[in-house]
Design goal:
By secondary structure, the chain is of the alpha/beta class. The protein has helices at about 10-25, 40-50, 75-85, 100-115, 150-155, 175-180, 195-200, and strands spanning about 1-5, 30-35, 55-60, 60-65, 90-95, 120-125, 145-150, 170-175, 185-190, 220-225. A seven-stranded parallel sheet has the order 1-10-9-6-2-3-5, covered by helices on one side. The radius of gyration is 16 Å and the shape is globular. The chain starts with a strand and ends with a strand. About 40% of the residues are buried.
């Protein structure tokens, strides 16, 4: 696990774009993508760059259950708004939040992930240590699955909705094992609220109570943060 600290978020995100560009230039063709406030500056910089994803495939970590692709707060809409309409991939996949059977949709998505192994996975980290929507207690050997979101996760995402009552209670997410199959992982952690959980990962804690701690067992992880020691 490699760690780089930046006093400037501008420099941090510029570095992230360089890492992603270098991965593509080195042969990565399948990218795992993330959403959330942490990723918006990154996608903005990618759209300003000359990196070309037109021959690549993308898979997103997760999608809310109950939100259609055109819903303002769906991750499908997020990705289109912040990245795909400006810098499209050859193919882009997200779970279908309106699938009649979310568990079957999770299985369908997992089979796609196994068909197209991810070369480069982008991750954020939740205040409770979640990666994707894998909440504390999620087994490290989990595959793509239906998850009930913790209240703290819904509260953290409520700022994107008119009220917390509108935040979906479930999501389909890549499982922890699904994420760990990626050949290379880039984790971005910014903001004081992420300090405690990031430190637990850096201390090599390894527990399902902190899902992101599984990354200590991955052979190729880079962490970028603006948190200073």
């Amino acid at each position: 696990m490699k760690l780089e600290r930046y006093s400037s978020r501008k420099d941090l995100y510029a570095r992230a774009v360089d890492i992603i560009t270098n991965a593509k230039n080195d042969g990565a063709t399948t990218f795992g993508l993330a959403t959330g406030g942490t990723m918006e500056p990154l996608y903005s910089k990618i759209c300003e760059s000359n990196v070309d994803f037109s021959t690549c495939i993308s898979f997103n970590l997760d999608e809310y259950v109950g939100l259609g692709a055109n819903h303002e707060q769906s991750y499908t809409n997020y990705m289109d708004k912040h990245l795909f309409r400006h810098n499209p991939f050859k193919e882009s996949y997200l779970p279908n939040g309106l699938a009649d059977n979310p568990k079957e949709e999770a299985l369908r998505y997992e089979l796609l992930l196994q068909q197209y192994p991810i070369d480069f996975q982008l991750l954020g980290i939740g205040q409770n240590g979640h990666i994707g929507f894998n909440e504390p207690g999620t087994p490290f050997d989990s595959l793509t699955h239906l998850v009930t979101l913790e209240q703290s996760t819904r509260q953290a995402n409520a700022r994107f909705f008119d009220s917390i009552d509108e935040v979906p209670t479930q999501a389909i997410t890549m499982g922890i094992q699904s994420i760990m199959r990626a050949k290379c992982i880039l984790l971005i952690a910014v903001g004081e609220a992420k300090r405690d959980v990031l430190q637990r990962v850096l201390d090599s804690e390894y527990t399902e109570d902190v899902p992101s701690s599984v990354l200590t067992k991955h052979p190729n992880v880079m962490i970028l943060t603006d948190l200073q020691e």
